[in-house]
From TrEMBL:
SMART domains: Glyco_25 (SM00641)
GO BP annotations, alphabetical order: carbohydrate catabolic process; cell wall macromolecule catabolic process; peptidoglycan catabolic process
GO MF annotation: an example: lysozyme activity
Domain SH3b: 334-396
CDD domains: GH25_muramidase
Name of the protein: GH25 family lysozyme M1 (1,4-beta-N-acetylmuramidase)
Length: 396
């Protein structure tokens, strides 16, 4: 299977020969953010990464991180992207990285995304692709976009991209914790069914028509089974998994919410509905990633149950003296302590691996939080919401 990575200046100066020796066959490099009239930004490693990767026969694409606030601004961002990638040896698509909405509505955001992709394709004649992630894709992205353009989906899971069928996408970013070519962590990607759909050289010719065989008589279809398996009683640690539903699942979801690992923060009751779907599996996996790093499977068994009970008990015992109900008008729902770092963790402006670093928090320092989103703690920094990677914060 092809190995692919995506990189930016966060990885420093990459040894691309080592990447090729370790089996990397394609890479996407960060190019730009914003526009020439706005927050103009060019990744300082863009030219180095593209040329060095190309020199060792690694196929290269580039991406632009979207910050546009209108359709017109999206076209300006496209022009900025084109200006700074012109002349580079790029063989894979130009990508729009769409992870947040800065427009007045989702409708305008989707129109802006389409305007960006159309302008880049029209001005360069080069194939284009859209990138987004999990729940943002599910809730905010116009699905017609992914019918009209190849789509690159980020969703960190062992069992599949979820929200999309692997055969229906060009690329799946399946982890942000890869380890390859002396670089860790790094985003890793797996080709999907529409990988290289833009490349005519990869199209297969239609086979010669054959005489149709007589169709066999259809056999009676078996009665479809229910998707959900009912579980009853109370949850005392018996293993729960995707497809289960009932009171034990609801109790699991309530425990997760107490620790701010919401099954679905934007749904009614934060996703507490008694159904163990993909969002609950994701919440369990996020909890395990921090508290049971050797047992990250998205299934809630006796170890997960015991750890949830322990964390909830510790949460009740530990109430820092500096705790308050609000900071700068933002409700405080707890605190985290910075852990699992050598010296400090980054405080970021948004929950994304491509975010801007606002500051750092020293190891052992305690920060107030207003909640969490998948993969990130939502902290309160200088009177505003900011984000710390979930791996570097532990509730106190």
């Amino acid at each position: 299977m092809s190995k692919g990575i995506d990189v930016s200046h966060y990885q420093g100066l990459i040894n691309w020969l080592r990447m090729a020796e370790d089996g990397v066959t394609f890479a996407f490099c960060k190019a730009t953010e914003g526009s020439e009239d706005g927050s103009a930004y060019v990744d300082p490693t863009l030219e180095y990464n593209v040329k060095q990767a190309h020199s060792v026969s690694i196929e290269v694409g580039v991406y632009h991180f979207a910050r546009f606030i209108s359709v017109g601004d999206a076209r300006n961002e496209a022009d900025w992207f084109i200006k700074n990638t012109r002349g580079l040896p790029i063989t894979l698509p130009f990508v729009l990285d769409l992870e947040s909405n800065h427009c007045k509505s989702d409708k305008e955001m989707n129109a802006g995304a389409r305007a960006f992709l159309e302008r880049v394709k029209e001005k360069t004649g080069h194939p284009v692709m859209l990138y987004s992630f999990g729940n943002f894709f599910r809730d905010r992205i116009d699905k017609q976009l992914v019918k009209d353009y190849p789509y690159w989906h980020a969703r960190y899971s062992k069992i599949g991209p979820i929200n999309m069928d692997l055969e229906d996408i060009a690329l799946w970013q399946n982890t942000s914790k890869g380890d390859i070519g002396d670089i860790t962590p790094i985003d890793m990607n797996i080709p999907g069914g529409k990988w290289k759909c833009w490349d005519k050289d990869h199209e297969t010719a239609d086979p010669k028509p054959q005489k149709p065989k007589p169709e066999p008589k259809p056999e009676p279809k078996p009665k479809p089974k229910s998707k959900w398996h009912e579980v009853t009683g109370n949850w005392h640690g018996q293993t729960l998994k995707e497809g289960d539903h009932g009171e034990p699942v609801k109790q699991l979801q309530q425990m997760l919410c107490k620790l701010y690992f919401y099954p679905d923060k934007h749904a009614k009751n934060n996703g507490v509905d008694g159904y163990y779907g993909e969002d609950t599996e994701d919440a369990v996996a996020r909890f395990q990633k921090i508290n049971l790093p050797h047992e990250v499977d998205g299934k809630a068994g006796p170890h997960t149950y015991a750890k949830l009970k322990e964390e909830i008990r510790d949460q009740k015992k530990s109430k820092p003296k500096h705790s308050s109900k609000k900071v700068s008008g933002i409700p405080v729902k707890g605190h985290i302590k910075i852990v699992n770092v050598a010296r400090a963790a980054f405080i970021c402006d948004r929950p994304s691996d491509h975010s801007k670093n606002l500051s750092t928090a020293k190891k052992g320092s305690v920060l107030p939080i207003s909640g969490s989103v998948p993969g990130w703690w939502e902290v309160i920094y200088k009177g505003q919401r900011a984000y710390v990677n979930e791996n570097y914060g532990k509730r106190v």
